[in-house]
Design goal:
Largest sheet: none
Number of domains: 1
Distance between the termini: 47 Å
Order of helices and strands: HHH
Number of helices: 3
Shape: elongated
Number of strands: 0
Strand content: under 5%
């Protein structure tokens, strides 16, 4: 993979993770982060430039979907779950 292509993939990966962390619902947030990591790990050994470009296009579409879902989730936000409200233990 060319250096510029690798940089683009890493930028897209970081953008998807960053955007997924804005989901208001804990279950959506954790699922999206886990799914993004799994998908990128699954395709890390792809060498064919055409296939890499197809995967990049799909990831860009998915990033758009994530952004839209985050905005929709923020419009209809709910209370946090108990698991999200846990405080760090004091030392």
């Amino acid at each position: 993979m060319a250096a510029s292509s690798r940089a683009q993939v890493l930028d897209l990966y970081r953008a998807m993770l960053r955007e997924s962390k804005h989901f208001s619902a804990y279950s959506y947030r954790s699922y999206a982060i886990r799914r993004i990591r799994d998908a990128f790990r699954e395709n890390k050994n792809v060498k064919d430039p055409v296939q890499i470009q197809a995967l990049m296009n799909k990831a860009k579409r998915d990033l758009g979907i994530i952004r839209r879902q985050v905005h929709i989730g923020q419009m209809y936000s709910t209370d946090k779950l108990i698991i999200e409200n846990q405080e760090k233990p004091r030392t």
